[in-house]
Specification:
Layout: E1 4-9, E2 19-23, E3 26-33, E4 36-41, E5 56-62, E6 68-78, E7 85-87, E8 103-109, E9 112-116
Length: 117
């Protein structure tokens, strides 16, 4: 069972810069993407760094040729300590989807954002 907690105002969450809030003694990063708001625990599952304080970015994807293209701009957060890249929507580590950052559901009511913990 989850409990709804007020997190912040929608205006507090900027594109490409998560709003980090403290709710129920948890540090949580709230991200604004083109499909809505998403939240991740601000702890990298690799070594415990402040995951949400890393850059919001994309990643390189190999094409059928011998080249790479930059893809998924603004949909990933990269751990500042070791560069591990996580999908903001699912919390999945790109290299091994079985490794996940903890994610939380976010709901919007008017101008208020709520986390479901």
């Amino acid at each position: 069972m989850t409990t709804r907690h007020f997190a912040c105002k929608t205006a507090d969450v900027l594109r490409d810069a998560p709003k980090i809030v403290s709710v129920s003694n948890l540090s949580i990063g709230i991200f604004s993407l083109n499909d809505g708001y998403h939240a991740l625990l601000n702890i990298c599952p690799h070594k415990g760094a402040a995951l949400c304080e890393g850059p919001v970015c994309g990643t390189t994807r190999q094409t059928s040729d011998r080249e790479f293209v930059y893809d998924r701009a603004g949909e990933l957060v990269r751990c500042a300590w070791h560069g591990w890249e996580f999908d903001i929507r699912s919390g999945e580590f790109l290299v091994d989807p079985t490794v996940k950052a903890r994610r939380f559901d976010v709901s919007v009511e008017g101008d208020d954002l709520y986390l479901h913990i």
